[in-house]
Amino acid sequence: MEYLEIVLRTLLSIAVLLLLARLDGAKQVGQLSFYDYIVGITAGSIAATLCIDRDINIWFCLIAIVMFMLSSFLLSIVTSKSMVLRRALTGSPIFLIAKGELLYDGLKKAHFDVNDLLRELRSQGYFDVNEINYAVLESNGSLSVMPKAAQRPASAQEAGLSLPEDEIAVNVIIDGKIMKGNLEASDFDTDWLMNELGNQNISSVKDVALATLDSKGRLNCFLKESSSTKHTVFE
User: Fold this and answer.
1) What is the pTM of this model?
2) Which one of 46, 75, 152, 176 is CB 3.0 to 4.6 Å from 206, fit for a cystine?
3) 71, containing H or E segment
4) Phi–psi pair at 81, nearest 5 degrees
């Protein structure tokens, strides 16, 4: 009878975790934030306790698991609606290297030291910091690296060519909201942006999921709903 109870508790834990993980979406696996990571570990620990500790009330454990998993789901909804809350709760990307220069202020803000940065670069195959043009610490803790033009696969250096360094595109619209600070830093204003949107037959900023500005002043827009793309998932 005791073994049967453990089996039933285990099956119940598995069912609840699968249901809540499905509700929370693929983010739990593919785009873990620090809070998502904590929630996953905590929910798993509670579920494990539920399976083997017969002295703990089943409903107490299930309520705790549901509350933790739903908090992650609700946090995702809240941060998708508000840019301010998104930055406050999930953080913002931090530049650690920009235009080939090491940014000590960025390292301090990210609580990184030089050894941490070098280790992360080596893990991506870069053993010389001089090969890096940009390095950005993302809000989920991963490091995104843009090598210098001459150091990329089939590099211009090997081909005997001299190419200008690429610049990072500036985000000027995210989720239908104008990033005025980024726009002003690029020496453009809202009137110019609205005029460019009109030239691309975009009537409202709210229709734009993402708009980027390249180093040549070209605006590239990605709409929230594109008529040219019919599928949102693979079939």
Assistant:
1) 0.56
2) 176
3) helix 58-81
4) -95, -25
Task: Say if residues 151 and 165 touch (Cβ distance below 8 Å).
Answer: no
d(CA 42, CA 198): 49
Contacts of 187 (CB under 8 A, 6+ apart): none
Q: What is the pLDDT of residues 77-105, one digit of tens each?
A: 787 777 777 777 677 889 999 888 888 88
Q: Look at 81 and 109; give whichever has higher pLDDT.
A: 109
Are 12 and 61 within 8 A, CB to CB? Answer: no
Distance set, CA 155 to CA 65, 152, 219 (Å): 51, 5, 27
Q: How far is the first Cα of the chain from the last one, in angstroms, to the nearest whole number?
A: 45
Q: Are strands 143-147 and 177-178 parallel, antiparallel or unpaired?
A: unpaired
Cα separation, 133 vs 168, in Å, equals 10
